[in-house]
């Protein structure tokens, strides 16, 4: 069975580890703070939750410890509207844990995930029946770094040539240097990314991995085979490369509370836009809109704007979109409502009409 392109209607299945996250409320530190806030953190489940927010059927496949942290993670992801029925409880391995340490130069993250339930995932998870009707399988570069069995999982997923896959595969490079102490990240991640259908990579991480002088076009030269390559240039812009096409859309100007999770949100928004109508400009815009919702909160998953606001942003002319990113001048009236703000009751239902 050949994968349709663009991907046909169907759920997006996201596979990977999600951990419990602990963080002090800024400006406190772990050392001096009196309390820690408990949340969940995982690149693939972040994507699944934002896809559900955007009205797409999303499935998260993983493993959790049979412990209170695991039950909390499962409940949090399910509460976002994601199908977690394929998540396995492991009675012998714990749920992974991370601790965020805010600082004046950014947030440092301490991981406690060795021997976690998700690190024991392997290629067999790809036999899950939920993949039978999937439009898309989403993976990240975090998974192959967790264990040999996790690496074999991603290798098996990408072993089938793109024209022969039953679903498209998206891959977020998501380079985490601490997970690659052996120095193999550059080679492994480039090989995996170049076999996916859709690839997301930050320009900064591409430069760190493959050359400090790279620009977006240079990344495309290094990764010529994905049907779509999206290069994110921080808070400035994102460029999508297709078959002979190149489209760049500026990011939305927004106040950054914490950058963690913005890349996952962008990937979800772009995939939702792609599955919605296949238009690259709209997909990039929806990626930026969704990323802004993550940037506006402490934690990985923030509230989307109201559905009407999103629709108006997607319908802006190129000039009006650019004007949103120009500092407001005296007497200048923004061309559309503010981006941020908690959705009203029923917003998720309004988003359901975006599903193909």
Report on this model:
- The chain contains 11 helices and 14 strands.
- The protein is an alpha/beta fold and 356 residues long.
- Helix 1 crosses helix 7 (262-277) and helix 7 runs antiparallel to helix 8.
What's the order of the H and E elements?
EEEHEEHEEEEHEHEHHEEEHHHHH
Please tell me how large the radius of gyration is.
19 Å
Strand proportion: 15-25%
Ranges where pLDDT stays below 50 over 5 or more residues in a row are 327-356
Give the termini distance in whole angstroms.
21 Å
| Shape annotation | globular
Number of helices: 11
Strand order of the largest sheet: 4-1-9-10-11-12-13-14
Can you summarize the main beta sheet? 8 strands, mixed
Secondary structure: number of strands: 14
**Overall pLDDT:** 85
- Fraction of residues in helix: 25-40%
Specify the structural class.
alpha/beta
Give a quick precis of the structure:
By secondary structure, the protein is an alpha/beta fold. It has helices at residues 43-53, 68-79, 148-159, 185-193, 203-210, 216-222, 262-277, 280-295, 307-314, 318-323, 347-351; strands at residues 12-15, 19-23, 37-41, 58-61, 63-65, 88-90, 97-103, 106-112, 136-140, 168-172, 198-202, 228-233, 237-241, 246-250.
Q: Top keywords for this entry?
A:
single chain, 31% helix, alpha/beta, 11 helices, eight-stranded mixed beta sheet, 356 residues
Secondary structure: elements and pairs:
Blueprint (H helix, E strand, L loop, with lengths): L11 E4 L3 E5 L13 E5 L1 H11 L4 E4 L1 E3 L2 H12 L8 E3 L6 E7 L2 E7 L23 E5 L7 H12 L8 E5 L12 H9 L4 E5 H8 L5 H7 L5 E6 L3 E5 L4 E5 L11 H16 L2 H16 L11 H8 L3 H6 L23 H5 L5
Parallel strand pairs: 1-4, 1-9, 2-7, 5-6, 9-10, 10-11, 11-12
Antiparallel strand pairs: 2-3, 7-8, 12-13, 13-14
